[in-house]
Amino acid sequence: MPSIRLKNIGPLTDTGVVEMKKVTLFIGAQSTGKSTLMKILCFCRWLEKHIMAGDDKATLYNYTHYNRFLRELKQFHRFNDGYFNADSEIDYRGSLLDITLHGTKNARITKHADFDQLRCNAKLCFIPSERNLISALRNADRAYKASNIDMLFNYVFEWAETRGMFTTDKPMPLSFDQDIEYYYDAKREKDILRLRGQGGKEIEPFYASSGVQSALPIEVMVGYVTRQVGQAADVSQQWLMDFVRSHMAPADHSPATPRSSNLPRDILTYQYANLFVEEPEQNLFPQSQWELLCQIVAAVNTAPAPHAPHGNAIVLTTHSPYILSALNILAKASVAMLKDPARTQAAVPAPAILPIGDIAAYHITGGQALSLVDDEFGMINGNALDAVSDDIEEKTSILNEIIYG
Asked: Who has greater pLDDT, 256 or 28?
């Protein structure tokens, strides 16, 4: 799986090598660089997909000249100029290509030897912490305007594309509240929540609780993206013409670069899904956090991933120790399954179980990314985070001594 290392970017001084797994978690206090790390990783993943799925020579040239890599990264993810300086470094080691950036100069992009044989298309999605604007603003896809295409503009655009998949006849049940299901009413151009426990009463998300408004876009978009794997990619006629032209034999009929016989299929259908979700726990009770996480992991687990070198993956940022603990439960369940499958599946949804080794977790602190995964047992070690609990217990002890002597 890919890895990334960042130096001297925003609050991050040197992350060390951060490796992606099927589920990768960044946890830490606010303003420590969790989102910075995830956004840059997402941009590199997107650019790799963009080069793999299109005219790779032209795209590669464009993003290694004119300072385009850094310019678009800053614009799309809203980084100001102060985040980058002469000592900044990005070192991304991808599935089929590497991206390096030193200072504020042009990026260098190097394809792996097996790029032509293994290149394919992917469905990527970034779900920001500001996601509840979809519910809080009516007709956000028409109301939200941006002078440039940025992360929020793209998110609103993707939401408009996504919601049409769920109709009154094919709604999406919400995992964190079994009495609620979502669908889009195309005639009224409205998002609808149907309350099954109240005789099918319908309300707009605008009137729902803050927890529903925050979690709804995650469930809907994760469900949509993972279901796109194996389906036809959304490409324009011009893109298709450019793709065919770039992969035709040279005019002199000399042998073209050897390519996989499955290349057209791998490019014109999505072969895997990558999701990036900020703070899935927003406004949710701990039990709802558990149910939402299980739904996300199950979607990633069960979506097909026919292209072996890649595979479905999700990256999360969080402040919540409950999310960390929930991932440990999903990993421990894979061990329990070997001894008693029936009892294990009664406690943990089978589709959400994660094999030991499929989780990476990092504590973002002091400008670094410190791995929380125990090398021996493959579980997430919470010792680095227990200092908060220890501090609370110490303060409680002091106050008890003051009060009771």
From this structure: 28
